[in-house]
Amino acid sequence: MRSLIRIVDKANKALEVLVGIALAAMTLLIFVQVLVRFVFAKLNIQFSVPWTEELSRYLMIWAIFIGAAIVARRADALAVEALVQAVPAVAGRAIKFTAHGMALVFYGCIFYVGLQWAEFGQSETAPVLGVPMLWVYSSMSVGAALTIVNAVVLLLETVLEKKDILEVIDYEMEEALHDAELALAERKA
User: Fold this and answer.
1) Which ranges constitute the DSSP H helices of the chain?
2) What are phi and psi of 142, to 5 degrees?
3) What angle in degrees, to the nearest 10, is found between the helix axes of 50-74 and 2-34?
4) CA-CA distances (angstroms) from residue 111 to 67, 80, 137, 184, 188?
5) How far is the C-alpha of 159 from the C-alpha of 157, rounded, in Å?
6) How many Cβ atoms sit within 10 Å of the Cβ of residue 178?
7) pLDDT per residue over 116-125, tens digit each?
8) What predicted TM-score, i.e. pTM, was given to this entire model?
9) What does the angle CA 36 – CA 39 – CA 42 come to, to the nearest 5 degrees?
């Protein structure tokens, strides 16, 4: 089981690089689009690069779904931890496990819907690039599948290493809660 965790973590490192490349490419493509529309137009140099906008949009879609998978592994998703921290530890653990279980169901729904969209995309092509929309629409299923794997690995790691589920918390949120507690203590003093 621990080897599975290591494999998933290595795969996530590769996915992080891919998302970074996608973000860099999107930035470059949009920069080219701005140059063509505003700078070259002012210089009376007329040409069009509509594929840059479409490609950057598709890269953004893939980056979002792959990024969601990476975030799921880190338990770094946007969450309201105040309730979990405010209730007794037993109730907090129950809330965390229930939330993770509900998230897994949601990811499963996204996977299913993504498969339907991918099937629909087999008969469509992108208007400018001319690529099958299957490549774009499959991002939902691929991202959801990776998110499910990462969420399950997070829960397995929590159980196998006997970590308290309450410790699997967004570190930034944990720091903010700690700062709030310090501020309250200073006010009382």
Assistant:
1) 2-34, 40-42, 50-74, 82-86, 89-121, 134-160, 171-188
2) -65, -50
3) 150
4) 15, 25, 11, 44, 50
5) 5
6) 10
7) 999 988 899 9
8) 0.79
9) 110
